[in-house]
Amino acid sequence: DIQMTQSPASLSASPEEIVTITCQASQDIGNWLAWYQQKPGKSPQLLIYSATSLADGIPSRFSGSRSGTQYSLKISRLQVEDTGIYYCLQRYSNPLTFGSGTKLEIK
Amino acid sequence: EVQLQESGPGLVKPSQSLSLTCSVTGYSITSNYWGWIRKFPGNKMEWMGYISYSGSTSYNPSLKSRISITRDTSKNQFFLQLNSVTTEDTATYYCARFLHRYPFDYWGQGVMVTVSS
Fold it and tell me: Which A positions 63-102 lie with beta carbon below 8 A of chain B?
């Protein structure tokens, strides 16, 4: 199975700040990576697909990047509603595997 | 608009089977892929498996032979059965649509299932 090592486990930031969450894949997965946001009490929502493409309706404050087998989600100009848990997902091969999640708190 | 909704019992006894239904509106399950994902207490997420537009299935090997995903195209529903459950199967279960380009772009609201005697 492909392991997705996600960091940090949690972070706290203020509105208007920039935060970055990373996922390290245990092997090459190309661009077969997605990012999700799960707000409290809600279902996960697709933010980024194919490592860098923004899903429909997602603000441009969210962006994805890739460097080798390391993938990053950057959130600019943080807003209070960005509170939640963020997950990466590799869909390069079965079994699909998620990162362990990053809990983001807005101060 | 595509909508998914899970339904099923919220409490299952150990060693019994967990059975959930995902009802889909706004899109035919005879197109693309339809999956089950669960989230454990403590926030770990696990892909369980999916059923394709043709009815073929793919499962997470971690679930071995305990899992079965089936469908009823006449009702536009697909189903999860997980056998021989233990307390470690306590989780919130989600169904979701999986497109080649957009993985899990629509999700149900989730159903919390507790395994307890």
Answer: 85, 87, 89, 91, 94-98, 100-101
CA B92 to centroid of chain Cα atoms: 10
Q: How distant, in Å, are the alpha carbons of A45, B3, B66, B87 from that of B107?
A: 8, 8, 23, 25
Starting from the edge strand earliest in sequence, which strands make up the sheet with B3-7, in order? B3-7, B18-25, B77-82, B67-72
- Residue A74, pLDDT > 80, answer yes
Cβ contact, residue pair A34, B104, below 8 Å:
yes
Report helix, strand or coil for B62.
helix
How do beta strands A70-75 and A53-54 pair? unpaired
Which one-letter DSSP state was computed for residue B111?
E
CB-based contacts of B50, cutoff 8 Å, min separation 6: B33, B34, B35, B36, B57, B58, B69, B98
How does DSSP classify residue A94? S
Mean pLDDT of chain B: 97
